[in-house]
Design goal:
homodimer; 222 residues; alpha/beta; Rossmann fold
């Protein structure tokens, strides 16, 4: 028997994910819900940044959070302590979230009727960037101690994000991090990327991040 | 036609990798070559730590480096500037190294007849931990700004490493990082893990890391 069927597994799964992600984006738009996918390295400050965003957002905006973690719930606990409706997705070893996992998480948090949902993706600069989660905006955090050369080394994640939050700027004096060099390198990969330096420790810069998000929410509501 | 063949693709590939990795480990041992797989988050200080290890190693030990990077060669350039024989593996979007990729890298660096080869894996705490590279020892670096909660969140990588290097201890005063808490959490996941705090900026602690490695090399030579 010389006949055989060639199945491009990865491509199949990816295009199926793209369809699900696109449908989810449309559905949430029709419900006036804005979905943000937040990505970063481990320890770049995703959780503490979400808490600072929550403090700076207009009080009329109801926020909910989807926490992705391989094997713990420490971040979801921090959200709960701050009275932010949260669901914990345990990825069970998975290195990223896809649209189907986000849909499962949303089933829980939509009960709170949020205007804004932030997904805290798995801490990883590689795999999460490859999967459309259905979010309206991708945002990434790069922290100063990680270095200003990261757009050279992980170009995909910089290319899929609309906003780059540069965190831990309070540590900049202790490092050789050059913000101008970072901006040049990030914009070479993605000329449209916007950059906001912040410190989740002092809170500096988060009024700008909150305002950026509020404008996006306004825009989707047309 | 109701017959079909079930192929467990991932399992197949993983066990094939395990076989290759095991064979590679044996072969290198018989040649008195020690292979270390170094893993960490992006920006934790893998490259600068390798440079400090090189400075602290006994001068009789010939070191070579295999650099893995998705899309750049900045780290390999730094090694070359320091006269360390290096090969750059471009993973082309891959989030980890496997034994076959390491074998390809070794073909180049063994020309220098090294006693010690260090693989700088892709910056990622998730995927690299899942693949045996054929190394005799796995070492990971966690940097202080990443936080002391990482063993809770990325347990696999802590469980497969013999040595945990805690880098950027010069920044500890600026953070709420608790070294004792980290040790407790890491040893809960892996009771045998050894921990050495260092600063790649000041060089502090790298004499201990170099000595740890030298003992491993002695041991394999029996």
């Amino acid at each position: 028997m010389s006949e055989f069927k060639l199945i491009k597994v990865k491509e199949g799964i990816l295009s199926e994910n793209d369809k699900k992600a696109s449908d989810l984006r449309q559905k949430l738009k029709s419900e006036n819900k804005y979905l943000i996918n937040l990505m970063a390295s481990p320890g770049a400050g995703k959780t503490s940044s979400i808490l600072k965003i929550a403090q700076n957002l207009n009080k009329d905006i109801r926020l909910a959070v989807i926490e992705a973690d391989i094997d713990s719930s420490v971040d979801a606990e921090k959200m709960a302590e701050n009275n932010i409706p949260t669901v914990q997705l345990s990825t069970g070893g998975f290195c990223h979230l896809d649209a189907e996992m986000v849909i499962q998480g949303l089933e829980e948090v939509v009960k709170e009727n949020p205007d804004l949902i932030i997904i805290e993706n798995v801490g990883n600069l590689v795999c999460p960037a490859e999967f459309d989660t259905g979010a309206h905006s991708n945002i990434m955090i790069l922290s100063v101690p990680e270095g200003d050369d990261k757009p050279l080394k992980y170009p995909l994640i910089f290319s899929v994000c609309e906003l780059l939050i540069v965190n831990k700027t309070d540590m900049i004096e202790l490092t050789d991090f050059n913000l101008e060099e970072l901006e040049k390198r990030a914009k070479k990969v993605n000329p449209k990327i916007e950059i906001i330096p912040v410190s989740a420790k002092t809170g500096k810069g988060f009024e700008k991040v909150a305002s950026w998000i509020e404008q996006k929410i306004q825009k989707i509501r047309g």
